[in-house]
């Protein structure tokens, strides 16, 4: 997996950087929406305001989680070594608050611009994050931190 010259590389070996996957989902959704408009929000609903609120909630969660990582002295980027298991802040409730923030951001954009395409693209985005990133991160953390990570994993849910 992450083997370089017989030594394990100290990172998760994620298949893709999550912000890139998120940006690709947004770009694809906007492109599909431009080609074939697919609205889903009822006309009476204040979609713009509601979408912005959901997007900002996701952004706030992402910032809170990233700040918690920084205060703990560990890396946010999947290409960098993890220094410690963080179990404070949003990590008390979910092992993946940054990705949940990304999902909320995508949902918020979908509502704000009234595009079902962005909702549809949540499925491939989730699959890429779940299997190409989270699965690799979990295997890496188990190898690196052993029982400490397994105990954290047993008490905190992956999502919500």
From TrEMBL:
It comes from Rhizobium gallicum. GO terms for molecular function: methyltransferase activity. This is Phospholipid methyltransferase protein. It is found in: Endomembrane system. It holds the Pfam family PEMT. Keywords: Membrane, Methyltransferase, Transferase, Transmembrane, Transmembrane helix. GO terms for cellular component: endomembrane system. The chain crosses the membrane at residues 20-36, 48-67, 98-129. It is a multi-pass membrane protein. The keyword GTP-binding does not apply. The keyword Cell cycle does not apply. One of its GO terms (biological process) is methylation.
């Amino acid at each position: 997996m992450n083997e370089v010259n017989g030594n394990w590389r100290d990172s998760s070996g994620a298949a893709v950087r999550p912000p890139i996957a998120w940006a690709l989902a947004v770009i694809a959704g906007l492109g599909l929406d431009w080609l074939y408009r697919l609205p889903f929000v009822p006309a009476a609903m204040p979609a713009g305001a509601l979408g912005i609120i959901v997007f900002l909630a996701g952004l706030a969660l992402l910032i809170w989680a990233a700040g918690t990582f920084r205060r703990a002295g560990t890396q946010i980027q999947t290409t960098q070594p993890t220094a410690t298991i963080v179990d404070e802040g949003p990590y008390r409730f979910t092992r993946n608050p940054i990705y949940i923030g990304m999902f909320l951001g995508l949902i918020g954009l979908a509502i704000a611009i009234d595009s079902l395409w962005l909702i549809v693209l949540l499925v491939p985005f989730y699959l890429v994050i779940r299997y190409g990133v989270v699965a690799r991160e979990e295997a890496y953390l188990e190898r690196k931190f052993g029982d400490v990570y397994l105990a954290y994993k047993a008490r905190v849910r992956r999502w919500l």
